[in-house]
Design brief:
The chain is of the alpha/beta class. It has one domain (6-164): 3-Layer(aba) Sandwich (Rossmann fold). It is built from four helices and seven strands; from the N terminus they run H-E-H-E-H-E-H-E-E-E-E. The strands form two sheets. A five-stranded parallel β-sheet has the order 2-1-3-4-5. The protein has a two-stranded antiparallel ribbon with strand order 6-7. Helix 2 links the parallel strand 1 (30-34) and strand 2 (56-58). Helix 1 packs across helix 2 (37-49). The radius of gyration is 15 Å and the shape is globular.
C-alpha cells in the first residue's frame, strides 16, 4: 500500500477527467478541493488541467454530521470559493473516499454558494465502506484495507500514502 505513487495517480486522474469532461461537453469547470488532502490533489489537478478559474477550497467541518461523536475541530479553515457556483460545472476533489459522509458535507456547503449545473467527484483513493450512496466519477486507485486499518494522504510536498493501524 505504501508503494502507491500519488503523483502518478493524479496524472491518470487528469487524463480521465479530460476525457469525462469532453464526453459530457463540460467546459470551464470550477475545481474545488476538500481540506486538507483534497486541496493538495486539487492543486495538482488544477495545474494539469489548465483550469482558468482560481482553485476553490472547502472546509466542511461545520457541515459534518458526527460532532456528537468526535467533537468540533478546533482548527476550522475558511472555505475559499472565488466565483458564483450557480449553473457552473464543478469538479469536487477529495483524497480518500470511505463512508461518503465527507462528500455529502462538501455538497451541502457547495449548495450554499449556488445550485451547480453538475458536480463531478474525483478522489485519489477509494477505500470502500460506504455509509452514504456516493460514487466517484474519477478515481486514482481503489484499495481494500483490513478491518480497522486507515489510509492517509500526507503532504503537501511530497505527497505520500500511509496506512495506519488503530
Amino acid at each position: 500500500m505504501n508503494d502507491i505513487r500519488p503523483e502518478a495517480l493524479i496524472e491518470r486522474m487528469a487524463q480521465d477527467l479530460r476525457a469525462l469532461l469532453a464526453e459530457r461537453g463540460l467546459d470551464d469547470p470550477v475545481i474545488a478541493g476538500v481540506h486538507t488532502g483534497g486541496v493538495w490533489v486539487a492543486e495538482r489537478l488544477h495545474r494539469l488541467l489548465g483550469a482558468r478559474e482560481p482553485l476553490s477550497t472547502l472546509d466542511i467541518n461545520f457541515y459534518r454530521d458526527d460532532f456528537s461523536r468526535i467533537g468540533l475541530y478546533p482548527r476550522v479553515k475558511p472555505s475559499a470559493i472565488h466565483t458564483d457556483l450557480a449553473d457552473r460545472h464543478i469538479i469536487l476533489v477529495d483524497d480518500v473516499l470511505h463512508t461518503g459522509r465527507t462528500v455529502c458535507a462538501a455538497l451541502n456547503e457547495l449548495l450554499d454558494y449556488g445550485r451547480a449545473a453538475s458536480v463531478v467527484l474525483a478522489v485519489l483513493i477509494d477505500r470502500g465502506g460506504r455509509e452514504m450512496p456516493v460514487c466517484a466519477d474519477v478515481c486514482g486507485a481503489a484499495v481494500t484495507l483490513q478491518p480497522g486499518r486507515q489510509i492517509k494522504l500526507r503532504g503537501p510536498d511530497p505527497l505520500r500514502i500511509e496506512t495506519l493501524s488503530p
